[in-house]
């Protein structure tokens, strides 16, 4: 097998290393998210308090994407990716302290380090693909981005299940220690094998060039911010807490269901090119993103209406779970379209600047969604979270009208 890998073109080998790094990181990131949510819910923390644990995670994601794109263009994407892997190991080690030290400020600080790590890793992985695909091969670029994004989300789902299972089997600290050890091995391998000048800009960018001057990228970034706020407003805190408190599901059930949801979501992302017309030679554009955003807007509104009727508890549960599956499938196509469009719109020299700016908007959407998920659920319940999600998706569709056609 190793002989076969060595015989592959260097671009494919580098793509496999980047993808492997992204996979390993994503597995630990998903597991850590579920570990923190379930562990602190078990300790009696309120939904808003649990959401606050992730505030620095999301806030530093905003900063990291903006500055990380600049660093990637100046230092090379291999260095920013390896820095991200190393920081994730550090974040996990911070949580290995005695239980008495796991106060809210300490966990928030560890999550801040993890947030920086995650967005350095993601920005580096997505930008690297642009450098490994020949210019003009838009269909191949879309395919590679869809495979990278879809496989990442499938593994994030596996991480959710892994987090719930490890919490039940090994406890909080045992699970954290195992993940830190395994990710350290991946980090060392990446330092040795990843190409040294990947993605480094020929003309060193100035710090003043952090903000994109492209109208298409600015519009797409605004749409992305609303899209991910619409997902996280009910998915990050409200949904797992609702499943545990209202349906009486245990850690295995909550982690397992959300894992299957994200795995399915990732699988749909991987085949998104076929769903959006690539099989017939059509490469998507702004119009495609608009129509898929319109379709997604309807789903949380319909779920909220069915749950409001609440004529029987079992039907309310079925409406939520089936609606969640439909939402995941359509959201996956929207996300995959956006991921392709940003890499396609980005300039060839210093691609990480444009991609970093875009994922800064993505992180702002997650930050907004996380805050709303804890507060709105605690004050008004899950149905209110779903209505806010529908409103944010409607805004995504309106913004998408401005995206360029082919």
Explain this structure to me?
- This protein is an all-alpha fold and 406 residues long.
- The protein has helices spanning 2-6, 10-42, 47-53, 55-75, 77-94, 104-132, 138-193, 215-235, 238-245, 251-270, 272-275, 286-309, 313-345, 351-380, 382-400.
- α12 runs antiparallel to α15 and α14 (351-380) runs antiparallel to α15 (382-400).
- The mean pLDDT is 79.
What composes the largest sheet? none
Number of DSSP helices? 15
Question: What fraction, in percent, of the residue positions are helical?
Answer: over 70%
Beta-strand level of the residues, as a percent range?
under 5%
- Secondary-structure element string: HHHHHHHHHHHHHHH
Write the layout of secondary structure elements.
Elements: H1 2-6, H2 10-42, H3 47-53, H4 55-75, H5 77-94, H6 104-132, H7 138-193, H8 215-235, H9 238-245, H10 251-270, H11 272-275, H12 286-309, H13 313-345, H14 351-380, H15 382-400
Helix pairs in contact: 2-3, 2-5, 2-6, 2-7, 3-14, 4-5, 4-6, 4-14, 5-6, 5-7, 6-7, 6-14, 7-10, 7-13, 8-13, 8-14, 8-15, 10-13, 12-13, 12-15, 14-15
How would you concisely characterize the structure shown here?
The chain has 406 residues and is an all-alpha fold. The chain has 15 helices and no strands.
List the main descriptive attributes of the protein structure presented here.
81% helix; mainly alpha; single chain; 15 helices; 406 residues
